[in-house]
Write a structure and sequence with these properties.
alpha+beta, three-stranded antiparallel β-sheet, 10 helices
Length: 290
């Protein structure tokens, strides 16, 4: 009786082991690639999968998007600038059968392809393109890597360049270049502003030249604007047309007082220095003054 119980126990244990080895449960995002006596059969999953013990062998494949970080790659750009670049690749398996049959380890193979492609593509670009045209470079990397991984049933969806590290001396050179570019733009803008201002001033001069009264009105307007501020001293030009009548005073014989003496008059007065008389005429008594 004891021997029968032992035999039954052994049989039950063997059946449990066979059952556990023949029953698989696949999640929604998993697929099972089943080999029966070494031959590939239909794809299994998701859900419950029954296998023949010791005959069938199953490989699980995840269909979710995989985030693959590309290690730091030292590249030399087309203009001979060394740089260290890190990137990240997003891919997923779209054909589980080919991902298992066509390549031994599709994850490692995709990583190596991404690294070599990154060095190849970035080595053909200039440093300026590497810093400012990342979207175009990302698209080129994605297309090239996807073309090489397509026979494996792997679809590369996105490749993003994360960081670009360049030498310190090159960073200083780029900073100087950017500063010089900003100064150039400032000078160009200033020159364009001066050109436009000169054109407007020329138009204003044409308008004022048609009516001289406009200049006087503008002069008075400027004085009014200056008088509105709390200025202790105001220096303003005075037109000669306004002060000319006050500078000349008629004499008794009709000659202006401020007019220099004629040479004939200087000869008639030998006691007067001719140079001094020409420089500063002597005042003449006005008939109306005491």
């Amino acid at each position: 009786m004891t021997e029968v119980v032992v035999i039954l126990s052994v049989v039950i244990i063997l059946l449990a082991m066979l059952a556990s080895s023949s029953i698989r449960v696949l999640r929604e995002y998993e697929r099972g690639v089943v080999f029966r006596l070494g031959r590939l059969i239909d794809l299994k999953g998701p859900g419950l999968v029954l296998l023949i013990p010791a005959i069938d062998r199953m490989e699980r494949v995840s269909l979710r998007t995989v985030t693959l970080r590309i290690p730091v790659q030292e590249v030399i750009t087309r203009d001979n600038v060394p740089a260290k670049v890190t990137a990240v690749t997003y891919f997923r398996v779209i054909d589980a059968d080919r991902a298992i049959v066509e390549v031994e380890d599709f994850l490692a193979a995709t990583s190596q392809i991404a690294q070599t492609t990154l060095r190849s593509i970035l080595g053909k670009a200039d440093l300026d393109a590497l810093l400012s045209e990342r979207e175009r470079l990302n698209e080129d990397l994605q297309k090239v890597i996807d073309q090489q991984t397509e026979p494996w049933g792997v679809k590369v969806t996105t490749v993003e360049i994360k960081d670009v590290e360049i030498p310190t001396n090159m960073q200083r050179a780029i900073a100087r270049q950017a500063e010089a570019e900003r100064e150039r733009r400032a000078k160009v803008i200033n020159a364009e502003a001066e050109f436009q201002a000169s054109a407007k001033l020329a138009e204003a001069a044409d308008v004022i030249s048609r009516n001289p009264t406009t200049l006087q009105l503008r002069y008075l307007q400027t004085l009014g604007e200056m008088g509105g501020d709390n200025n202790s001293t105001i220096v303003f030009p005075l037109p000669l047309d306004l002060v000319r009548p006050f500078l000349t005073t008629p004499t008794a014989n009709g000659q202006d007082e401020s007019r220099p003496a004629e040479p004939s008059q200087l000869e008639a007065r030998p006691d007067v220095d001719p140079m001094r008389a020409m420089a500063r005429p002597e005042p003449v008594a006005h008939p109306l003054r005491n």
